[in-house]
Protein backbone atom coordinates (compact mmCIF):
# COMPACT_ATOMS: atom_id res chain seq x y z
CA UNK A 1 0.00 0.00 0.00
CA UNK A 2 1.24 3.47 -0.84
CA UNK A 3 1.41 6.22 1.75
CA UNK A 4 -0.60 9.43 1.41
CA UNK A 5 2.62 11.32 0.69
CA UNK A 6 3.42 9.10 -2.28
CA UNK A 7 -0.11 9.61 -3.58
CA UNK A 8 0.18 13.41 -3.45
CA UNK A 9 1.22 13.84 -7.07
CA UNK A 10 0.18 16.26 -9.77
CA UNK A 11 -2.33 14.49 -12.02
CA UNK A 12 -3.04 14.59 -15.73
CA UNK A 13 -0.85 13.66 -18.68
CA UNK A 14 1.41 16.70 -18.97
CA UNK A 15 5.06 15.78 -19.53
CA UNK A 16 6.23 19.39 -19.12
CA UNK A 17 4.89 22.36 -17.17
CA UNK A 18 4.19 24.35 -20.34
CA UNK A 19 1.66 21.64 -21.38
CA UNK A 20 -0.01 22.04 -17.98
CA UNK A 21 -0.40 25.76 -18.54
CA UNK A 22 -1.71 25.30 -22.07
CA UNK A 23 -4.43 23.02 -20.64
CA UNK A 24 -5.17 25.46 -17.80
CA UNK A 25 -5.32 28.47 -20.10
CA UNK A 26 -7.69 26.61 -22.45
CA UNK A 27 -10.00 25.89 -19.50
CA UNK A 28 -9.83 29.53 -18.39
CA UNK A 29 -10.68 30.81 -21.88
CA UNK A 30 -13.98 28.96 -21.61
CA UNK A 31 -14.53 30.54 -18.18
CA UNK A 32 -13.66 34.11 -19.15
CA UNK A 33 -17.11 35.26 -17.96
CA UNK A 34 -16.16 34.19 -14.43
CA UNK A 35 -12.47 35.06 -13.94
CA UNK A 36 -9.81 37.53 -14.99
CA UNK A 37 -6.51 35.66 -15.26
CA UNK A 38 -3.25 37.38 -14.24
CA UNK A 39 -0.08 35.55 -15.36
CA UNK A 40 3.15 35.20 -13.39
CA UNK A 41 2.55 37.88 -10.79
CA UNK A 42 5.47 39.02 -8.61
CA UNK A 43 4.72 40.21 -5.10
CA UNK A 44 6.28 41.12 -1.77
CA UNK A 45 6.50 39.10 1.42
CA UNK A 46 4.70 40.54 4.41
CA UNK A 47 6.72 38.28 6.67
CA UNK A 48 10.17 37.14 5.60
CA UNK A 49 11.08 33.72 6.98
CA UNK A 50 14.11 33.76 9.28
CA UNK A 51 17.36 32.38 7.88
CA UNK A 52 16.07 32.26 4.29
CA UNK A 53 17.55 34.06 1.34
CA UNK A 54 15.67 37.28 0.55
CA UNK A 55 13.66 36.72 -2.60
CA UNK A 56 10.42 38.06 -4.05
CA UNK A 57 7.57 35.59 -4.59
CA UNK A 58 6.19 35.00 -8.09
CA UNK A 59 2.96 33.03 -8.36
CA UNK A 60 2.00 31.31 -11.62
CA UNK A 61 -1.55 32.68 -11.88
CA UNK A 62 -4.02 34.78 -9.92
CA UNK A 63 -7.71 34.47 -10.76
CA UNK A 64 -9.88 37.43 -9.83
CA UNK A 65 -13.63 36.76 -9.76
CA UNK A 66 -16.01 38.65 -12.06
CA UNK A 67 -19.61 39.73 -11.33
CA UNK A 68 -21.37 36.46 -12.40
CA UNK A 69 -19.17 34.45 -10.06
CA UNK A 70 -19.70 36.92 -7.20
CA UNK A 71 -23.46 36.80 -7.84
CA UNK A 72 -23.31 32.99 -7.53
CA UNK A 73 -21.96 33.39 -3.98
CA UNK A 74 -18.18 33.38 -4.48
CA UNK A 75 -16.84 35.01 -1.33
CA UNK A 76 -13.19 34.02 -1.05
CA UNK A 77 -11.82 36.78 -3.29
CA UNK A 78 -8.98 36.30 -5.75
CA UNK A 79 -7.28 32.90 -5.67
CA UNK A 80 -3.77 31.80 -6.54
CA UNK A 81 -2.87 28.87 -8.78
CA UNK A 82 0.41 26.95 -8.72
CA UNK A 83 1.05 24.51 -11.57
CA UNK A 84 3.16 21.36 -11.54
CA UNK A 85 3.74 18.86 -14.35
CA UNK A 86 2.03 15.50 -14.05
CA UNK A 87 3.59 12.99 -11.70
CA UNK A 88 5.55 15.57 -9.71
CA UNK A 89 5.41 15.27 -5.91
CA UNK A 90 3.35 18.05 -4.41
CA UNK A 91 5.32 18.55 -1.16
CA UNK A 92 7.50 21.36 -2.58
CA UNK A 93 4.44 22.93 -4.25
CA UNK A 94 2.57 22.93 -0.94
CA UNK A 95 5.50 24.80 0.62
CA UNK A 96 5.34 27.35 -2.21
CA UNK A 97 1.61 27.82 -1.57
CA UNK A 98 2.31 28.53 2.10
CA UNK A 99 4.89 31.13 1.04
CA UNK A 100 2.39 32.79 -1.32
CA UNK A 101 -0.04 33.21 1.55
CA UNK A 102 2.56 35.29 3.40
CA UNK A 103 2.79 37.72 0.49
CA UNK A 104 0.82 40.44 -1.23
CA UNK A 105 0.46 40.68 -5.00
CA UNK A 106 -0.55 43.63 -7.19
CA UNK A 107 -3.74 42.92 -9.13
CA UNK A 108 -4.59 46.40 -10.46
CA UNK A 109 -2.92 49.80 -10.29
CA UNK A 110 -2.79 50.69 -6.61
CA UNK A 111 -4.48 47.43 -5.50
CA UNK A 112 -2.70 44.54 -3.82
CA UNK A 113 -4.16 41.32 -2.49
CA UNK A 114 -3.20 38.74 0.11
CA UNK A 115 -4.46 35.40 -1.20
CA UNK A 116 -6.82 33.58 1.16
CA UNK A 117 -6.69 30.40 -0.98
CA UNK A 118 -4.07 28.92 -3.31
CA UNK A 119 -4.87 25.91 -5.52
CA UNK A 120 -2.63 23.29 -7.11
CA UNK A 121 -3.22 22.51 -10.81
CA UNK A 122 -3.70 19.80 -11.96
CA UNK A 123 -4.45 17.80 -8.87
CA UNK A 124 -7.18 15.40 -7.87
CA UNK A 125 -8.50 15.02 -4.36
CA UNK A 126 -5.77 14.60 -1.74
CA UNK A 127 -7.01 12.86 1.40
CA UNK A 128 -5.35 11.69 4.59
CA UNK A 129 -2.83 13.66 6.62
CA UNK A 130 -1.53 15.74 3.70
CA UNK A 131 -5.06 16.62 2.59
CA UNK A 132 -5.98 17.61 6.15
CA UNK A 133 -2.97 19.89 6.50
CA UNK A 134 -3.68 21.45 3.11
CA UNK A 135 -7.31 22.10 4.09
CA UNK A 136 -6.28 23.70 7.39
CA UNK A 137 -3.87 25.98 5.52
CA UNK A 138 -6.38 26.86 2.76
CA UNK A 139 -4.50 25.08 0.01
CA UNK A 140 -6.87 23.43 -2.42
CA UNK A 141 -6.75 21.27 -5.50
CA UNK A 142 -8.00 22.12 -8.96
CA UNK A 143 -8.58 19.99 -12.04
CA UNK A 144 -10.34 20.12 -15.39
CA UNK A 145 -14.01 19.09 -15.31
CA UNK A 146 -15.98 18.89 -18.57
CA UNK A 147 -15.92 22.44 -19.95
CA UNK A 148 -14.52 24.00 -16.81
CA UNK A 149 -12.82 23.29 -13.51
CA UNK A 150 -13.41 21.67 -10.14
CA UNK A 151 -11.93 23.17 -7.01
CA UNK A 152 -11.53 21.04 -3.93
CA UNK A 153 -10.36 21.15 -0.36
CA UNK A 154 -9.45 18.10 1.69
CA UNK A 155 -11.13 14.94 0.46
CA UNK A 156 -13.73 16.34 -1.95
CA UNK A 157 -14.73 18.90 -4.54
CA UNK A 158 -17.21 21.50 -3.39
CA UNK A 159 -16.94 24.03 -6.20
CA UNK A 160 -17.52 23.44 -9.91
CA UNK A 161 -17.45 26.13 -12.59
CA UNK A 162 -18.33 25.17 -16.17
CA UNK A 163 -19.21 27.07 -19.32
CA UNK A 164 -22.40 25.03 -19.99
CA UNK A 165 -23.77 24.54 -16.48
CA UNK A 166 -22.57 27.65 -14.67
CA UNK A 167 -21.42 27.67 -11.07
CA UNK A 168 -21.96 25.24 -8.21
CA UNK A 169 -20.32 26.89 -5.23
CA UNK A 170 -20.32 26.46 -1.49
CA UNK A 171 -18.00 28.18 0.94
CA UNK A 172 -15.21 25.89 2.07
CA UNK A 173 -15.77 24.68 5.62
CA UNK A 174 -12.08 24.21 6.27
CA UNK A 175 -9.20 26.54 7.02
CA UNK A 176 -10.91 28.84 9.51
CA UNK A 177 -10.02 27.36 12.90
CA UNK A 178 -7.25 28.78 15.04
CA UNK A 179 -5.44 27.37 18.04
CA UNK A 180 -5.94 23.78 19.12
CA UNK A 181 -7.69 21.59 16.59
Listing every helix as H and every strand as E from the N terminus to the C terminus, the arrangement reads: HHEEEHEHEEEHEEEE
Cα(first) to Cα(last) distance is: 28 Å
Average pLDDT, to the nearest integer? 82
Specify the helix fraction band. 10-25%
- In the sheet with the most strands, the strands line up as 1-3-4-7-8-9-10-11
The secondary-structure class comes to alpha+beta
**Beta-strand percentage?**
25-35%
Low-confidence stretches are 1-6
Number of helices: 5
Strand segment tally: 11
3D shape: globular
Can you describe what's shown?
- This protein has helices at residues 4-7, 17-30, 67-71, 91-100, 128-136; strands spanning 35-42, 44-45, 58-65, 79-83, 103-108, 111-113, 117-121, 139-145, 148-153, 156-162, 166-169.
- It has 181 residues and is an alpha+beta fold.
- Strands 1-3-4-7-8-9-10-11 form an eight-stranded mixed β-sheet.
- The longest helix has 14 residues, at 17-30.
- The radius of gyration is 16 Å and the shape is globular.
Offer a quick outline of the entry.
The protein has five helices and eleven strands, in the order ααβββαβαβββαββββ.
Tags for this entry?
single chain, 181 residues, alpha+beta, eight-stranded mixed sheet, three-stranded antiparallel sheet, 5 helices, globular, disordered N terminus
Compile the SSE list and pairings.
Elements: H1 4-7, H2 17-30, E1 35-42, E2 44-45, E3 58-65, H3 67-71, E4 79-83, H4 91-100, E5 103-108, E6 111-113, E7 117-121, H5 128-136, E8 139-145, E9 148-153, E10 156-162, E11 166-169
Parallel strand pairs: 4-7, 7-8
Antiparallel strand pairs: 1-3, 2-5, 3-4, 5-6, 8-9, 9-10, 10-11
